[in-house]
Design brief:
372 residues, mainly alpha, Serine Threonine Protein Phosphatase 5, Tetratricopeptide repeat, 79% helix, elongated, TPR-like_helical_dom_sf, TPR repeat, CellSynth/LPSAsmb/PSIAsmb, repeat
């Protein structure tokens, strides 16, 4: 009779602890369990999970070990303990548990995957072997395919990265992580036409961020889809408004589409934000003023570009053009072209050198006629 009452009391206590656990009152649930006189396998397992949920990993580890001492065949408890040890960075202990599990259950893909995670955290290059073992046992294992695809992307093995990504996406088209790897693999090869639909799918799934919007913007830019590129870059700025590259690209895009005021604003923002060097930004500002036929300001920015980088050939050439349009004195205009040719005639861009020589010849001819 006493045993029956005791069993009923324990059952009632377990039910109470389960209710408390379900609503997140982990400490109260643990308190109820600790008052149960019989530390059964079930009680110890609930204590282990309660401590884990509360974030008390050392106590959780202790109780998981007690459970396995009481019943070494509890595979799920061993799995939970192994994962807990990984969280605690007790990687050698976790490795021991999962090696034991893989020996007992060699066909279990999940145990191979956990070994891969451990090796990855240990920065052990053999991690990839375990991830490959995982997909050999379970070809559509999404997490393992992502790990393999990501590694191939990082090593610029784009073909393999695409292959692993597509394997996973064929089974789960909404896997954002694999869509990102696939999009980046195309993007990094400058296959923008293929990258665009993959980035767009990520946005359709509501997973946009600065990285996705800026990369999609650049892809649109390179495909001549300037308005779409502007839209994406502006959205990227909503995530991070102090990205100099985003402002720089917007500046160039607005110049292309004829909005020179916005072009100037974004190019100036790029200069203000960016640390050295900023000669490319100053060059773009100069070109924007050139389009406005404000040759004085164009000249100022080309000079600024050259102060940042005296080896910027385009800036030196454009400075000569701006000076030619701004100054009236022929000798001054001639000197700017001479300065460009003295520096780059032997090593520069053939087209620019040709144009500079033609213009210099015309100016000297004009000067000669005036002298006569």
């Amino acid at each position: 009779m006493f045993a029956i009452v005791k069993a009923e009391a324990q059952t009632s206590a377990l039910a109470v602890s389960d209710s408390l656990y379900a609503v997140g009152n982990y400490s109260e649930a643990i308190g109820v369990l600790k008052n149960i006189s019989s530390a059964s396998e079930t009680v110890n397992l609930k204590l282990a999970r309660g401590y884990k949920a509360r974030g008390d990993f050392n106590e959780a580890e202790k109780y998981f070990k007690l459970v396995l001492q009481q019943n070494p065949e509890r595979i799920l408890s061993a799995l939970e303990l192994g994962k807990l040890l990984i969280i605690q960075q007790k990687l050698e202990k976790a490795d021991s548990i999962f090696r034991n599990l893989t020996e007992r259950y060699p066909e279990n893909a999940g145990f191979q995957y956990q070994l891969g995670l451990i090796k990855e955290k240990q920065q052990d290059s053999t991690a990839g072997i375990y991830f490959k073992n995982t997909i050999q046992l379970e070809p559509l294992h999404q997490d393992a395919l992502f790990k393999l695809a990501k590694d191939e992307l990082q090593h610029r093995e784009y073909g393999m990265a695409i292959n692993y990504s597509l394997m996973g996406l064929n089974a789960n088209p909404g896997n954002v992580s694999l869509l990102s790897i696939l999009a980046q693999s195309y993007y990094n090869q400058k296959l923008y036409e293929k990258a665009i639909p993959e980035f767009e799918k990520i946005l359709e799934l509501g997973q946009g961020n600065e990285f996705v919007h800026s990369r999609l913007g650049f892809a649109y830019y390179n495909e001549g889809m300037y308005e779409k590129a502007i839209e994406q870059y502006n959205t990227a700025l909503e995530f991070e408004d102090r990205n100099s590259d985003t402002h720089y690209n917007l500046g160039k895009l607005y110049a292309i589409t004829g909005d020179l005021e916005k072009s100037e604003i974004h190019l100036l923002m790029a200069v203000l934000i960016k640390k050295q060097p900023v000669d490319a930004e100053f060059l773009s500002l100069g070109l924007t003023y050139k389009l406005q036929q404000d040759h004085k300001k164009a000249l100022e920015y080309f000079n600024s570009a050259l102060e940042e980088n005296p080896e910027n050939e385009r800036a030196l050439y454009e400075r000569a053009i701006a000076a030619d349009n701004y100054f009236k004195d022929l000798e001054t205009r001639i000197n700017y072209y001479v300065a460009y040719l003295n520096k780059f005639e032997a090593k520069g861009n053939g087209d620019l050198i040709y144009l500079a020589k033609i213009r210099l010849k015309d100016l000297r001819k004009e000067q000669h006629l005036l002298e006569e």
